[in-house]
Amino acid sequence: MAICTFLELQDLAARALERAGASPAAAQAAARALVAAEQQGVSSHGVSRIPLYAAHMRNGRVNGAAAPEIVNHQSSALLIDAHQGMAYEACALAVQECISRATLHGIALAAVTNSNHSGMTAYHLEPVAEAGMVGLAYGNAPAGISAWGGKRPLFGTNPIAAIFPRREADPLVIDLSLSEVARGKLMVAARDGKPIPEGWALDRDGRPTTDPRAGLEGSMLPMGGANGAKGAMLALIIEVLSVALTGAGFGFENESFFTETGGKARLGQGFLVINPGALAGREVFFDRMEALAEAMLADDGVRLPGARRFALRDKARNNGIDIPDSLHRQLQALAGDTNQTS
Asked: With 80 as the cut, is the pLDDT of residue 316 above it?
């Protein structure tokens, strides 16, 4: 394993992306998000994505030079066009605008259209908690889940995340996809040549599989596995919110992230920010949050959501971030480093 500091890995990631065609701003935004995912132990949404991102830019699937643009707005609601670039700058703009508008209006919703893979969803909400507000984020993805009762993938695995700040502690963070597991876990298993547990995915013929490559070519089981009707319905809700309100493309209208060639992505994302001061008040909110956290932790074995991520983040800050030697060498090659080391 190669060990890097956050800044070392961010610099390597940004240089690899910029060399593939990303603007400096887009490369830096993506690199920060991907390395933060590594730091928090979410490697399925970390720097292992960079080789595919680079290939997508080289092959015209992603516009590396695109800059997000606000194309419509009304007081506390706005629409941002990512112009088929990487999603990270557009998501950052959406969150920044939501925080500003929720400060004035109490609540704000920013939607993003013509977007792409947005990485670890909860990452985008961290500034919301830092501002003392509540955040919700969601988005659709290329088709990976069938409508309940069907066989053909229609909906994305459609991540959703929420963040709830606390007065003097790390926020509560909930981050999940609506498939049984995130599709990125299959990508990591395929890269490492490891099987996946039965119950994660189906092959293209609708049969359960432990082969991650067959699962990537097939479909993901919705949350709840074989009895995942509720997961499929939640995926439908996020599909409508992400697409019908933004003009983006449904999951079945987008091509897989996991192939180097194909059409441009037209995904949608949404960010909702709520200012507690506009409701019962900030101090009431924080008091209620502490009462909830105390009640949860009084039960042995309970871990607050997000606690593991923050513990891994703190460990990585002290000890560095481990990535496979092969991936490190691949990133160095993409960045044009002539003296590669592992």
From this structure: yes
